[in-house]
Structures are given as structure tokens and as C-alpha cells.
User: What shape does this take?
Amino acid sequence: MGKKKVRQFMVESQSVRDKLYKVTLYDDGSWACSCPAWIYRRYECHHIVTAKQYLKNNKDNNSKVKEIPIIKISNDYILRPGKVDKVTKEGNTLLIPLIPIPCSTYYLAKIVYDLLSYGVSMKRIKSYFHPMIDSWTKKAVISFIEKNS
Ligand SMILES: [Zn+2]
Assistant: This one.
């Protein structure tokens, strides 16, 4: 697992008008910026310094900095079975219908397809349903559903 984003800020460029850079603080305490100074030279740029100051001053009304919410990447969804008839998002949880036995391939494939459309990785989906769909591929599920619905 890579490091996780903790806070994220848009910081105004000093030199280019209306240009904003995205500054990110990670859970290991490291920082990154989307500006060339950071990307090409790993140099602690003005934007990172400005964001650090903003944090230190505890949301001082610094108009050069705007904090933006961290969007949870979809792989962070909690997967759990629920009494639902299709994949249902509830906060950061995806409720997955209980699988009837026997289960039609279409029904199972549709659930997998819906999970994929929420951005859940095939690897996670497989481990959830293990060993039922171990031989399935993402590509096959998508084309099967798109052909059959
Ligand atoms: Zn920068």
C-alpha cells in the first residue's frame, strides 16, 4: 500500500496569474506539489511552504490557499453483504446482495460489473467472492454484461 493523502490544498502561483497548484500532505508527513519545481527538482517550493504556514496558523484567512477535500479512492469502499437486490452504496460501504445458490452467471456477473463501475478492483472483487469467480476477467465480465443487458 502506498502512502495516503491526508490534506490537500490549492495554492496560488506567485508568478502566473490565476494559476493554482495542488499541494498534498501525506500520512508519513511528506509533502508534494503539482508545480514544475517540485516535479522536476524535488525542491520544497513556495506552494508547499505556503500550505505549511496555512496549517501552522490554523486556517488563517490566507486567500492564497484553499483547502480541498480528499476524495476517497473507490478501492477504499468497505465491501459487505447486505439485504439488497443490487450493489448499493451506503456512505463508504458497498452493500453486496446475498448470493442465492444456485446463482445465475448473469446475476453474479451483474454484481461484479456494478462493483467494477464503483471502481473496485477485480482483485478485491475476486477475493470477496473467492473461489467463485477466480477464473473471471474484468474484460470478460464487462463484455458479457454489455452483450446481455
Ligand atoms: Zn509547488
Notes: Residues 21, 33, 35, 37-38, 45, 47-48 surround zinc ion (CB under 6 Å). The longest helix spans residues 105-117. The beta strands are 5-12, 20-26, 31-33, 65-68, 78-82, 88-90, 93-97. The chain has a mean pLDDT of 89.
